Amino acid sequence: MSEHKLLEVDKLITSFDTERGMLRAVDQISFSIPAGKTVGIVGESGCGKSVTAMSIVRLLPQPSGKVLGGEIRFKGEDLLHASDKRMRQVRGGEIGVIFQEPMSALNPVHRIGRQVAEVFRIHKNMSKKDAWDAATEMLALLRIPAPEKRMMDYPHHLSGGMRQRVVIALALACRPSLLIADEPTTALDVTVQAQILDLLENLQHDIGMSVMLITHDLGVIAETCDEVVVMYAGRVVESAPVDELFGNPLHAYTQALLRSIPTLETPPKSVLPTIPGTVAGLGDHTYGCRFCQRMGRKSSRTRERPKFKEAQPGHWLEICKECSNL
Amino acid sequence: MLESVTTHPPSVTTHPPSVTTHPPSVTTHPPSVNDQPNMLTAQDLRVHFPVRTGLFMKQTGAVKAVDGVSLRLGVGETLGLVGESGCGKSTLGKALVRLLTPTSGKILFEGRDITHLGQGALRPLRRDFQMIFQDPAESLDARMSVRALVEEPFRIHGMGSAAERKKWVDGLLETVGLAASSAEKYSFEFSGGQRQRIGIARALALKPKWLVCDEPVSALDVSVQSQILNLLVDLQKEFGLSYLFIAHDLSVVKHVSDRVAVMYLGKIVELADSETIYRNPRHAYTKALLSAVPSADPKVKRKRSCWRATSHPPSIPRKAAPSAIA
Hints:
The structure holds 2 protein chains of 2 kinds.
Chain A: E1 5-18, E2 21-34, E3 38-42, H1 49-56, E4 65-74, E5 77-78, H2 84-94, E6 95-98, H3 102-105, H4 112-124, H5 128-141, H6 147-151, H7 160-172, E7 178-182, H8 190-207, E8 210-215, H9 218-224, E9 227-232, E10 235-241, H10 242-247, H11 252-260, H12 290-294, E11 307-312, E12 315-319
Parallel strand pairs in A: 3-8, 3-9, 6-7, 7-8
Antiparallel strand pairs in A: 1-2, 1-4, 4-5, 9-10, 10-12, 11-12
Helix pairs in contact in A: 4-5, 5-7
Chain B: H1 18-21, E1 38-53, E2 58-74, E3 78-82, H2 89-96, E4 104-109, E5 112-113, H3 119-126, E6 129-132, H4 136-139, H5 146-156, H6 162-175, H7 192-204, E7 210-214, H8 222-239, E8 242-246, H9 250-256, E9 259-264, E10 267-273, H10 274-279, H11 284-291, H12 305-308
Parallel strand pairs in B: 3-8, 3-9, 6-7, 7-8
Antiparallel strand pairs in B: 1-2, 1-4, 4-5, 9-10
């Protein structure tokens, strides 16, 4: 397509080798991330959000996870066929990743300073001293108080919010052009979440990067994203600019998700609309519409996969007779 | 959707079936709630943890986790408790069900002082107050079948014959919306939402009068979250339960609560009925907390100026000056 797409994912298929055979966690999904924009990926647990992210940076669990098909183009470069050496440059260099759990993303036996400086040592070939200074500066940029002191701390010395900032510092150290943030604020308090989101937004403007934000919090999506991709059971069911998606959701799954969250305006103790059942396990996916499968509709048993089409300009939708409201 | 009272274990406990005595209030803000008899009263409750340092572990200070809290919980009422991590919410919850012994102050349960009761004297009272924990994956023993888990409270309290207990467990599982066949499975075979249902079944087993729900939905997906919230509201109506509902998600708290207490640094800074507190927050901290909630409407732009300035939320040991929140 065009040059302003920083990342393009085209018909990506990611499978896991299990006792029950090769199971598709991500089933031919396509989306793109424009330069400088924030794209939110939303869906319930087990919809393939994190697997998609891990496929992009080729960090799937080995040896079971495999990308079986499709293309991932980052600045026009085919990441699926890049050498391991090249991938190591891309990861942490051009694509920063914030992993889900800030506690387990940091090494508990090394000081914060060493862990942040390491990124500069590896990617920028800096001397020890320069890397240390750059790391201190990075912590300061993330508004961590007394960065010189924090550099000497171990991860367990820091609060959840501070740890998450360190993880963000690691991801942003090399000023990547794409940041993949997997549930960056899920474990945090609302006030800390607000600070982290503000920080990300400001840094995004300063560095001019794109952000792929994976979350199940629709409030966070509404506030920070330019475009939204809704995933269900390994497929993209809808994608649209944020105002369009929230104002005019066309897929039944998106509508159900939006309805099920209580807001400050919901009448107290009223019955919240729910989505019956759960996301089908990997082995039980049908070929037809998977949301129909969850709702127990017969139409899900067809051999025909619903088409993913541009229903309205910029608004993509999986077309299913039952689930899409056109 | 919910089973009637008859499926519940016959009342061998000291209290009569509460359903008839406390008809559930249908209106959202009955003024009568405040006139209803108190289930629980806490007066100037303090829980301090000693800080010991040095070779001889001399006490050098105290973490004032709960510092002078007074509140009351009416019959059939939900009191929401919000605040950041580390503000003392969970400690307060644990102290009220006497999993912790308060440093000073008084806890009155149905007029009886339970502040300093020993474990033996507390045991019969434990039937009346139970706790629902945040992470059902960690609070359920993976080596026990669901039947054994739900049956455990009956066994501990020496209630019923084996056959009776089996009938009660089946009834409880039905009440919380789990299939009878799930009794022979293990907790790890279930999804997060179903596990939380097991936790709720356990808590309900002894027909408690009031429950501490400590972040019962924060580990769950939005679609499942709404199912659990509906269940809690239904159970309250059916059995006339009182809840102390601890959560950091303000929309969730507002949805389930009659009154809301906002906690900050071990103290309750504001307490009012939920409508009032959200419409007209008085305390600067409540305002800050509310402004940090992301709205699931992209058109509403957040106004969280008050928290932008502070780089870190004050924790109890650090104890910020009151001006930090203004």
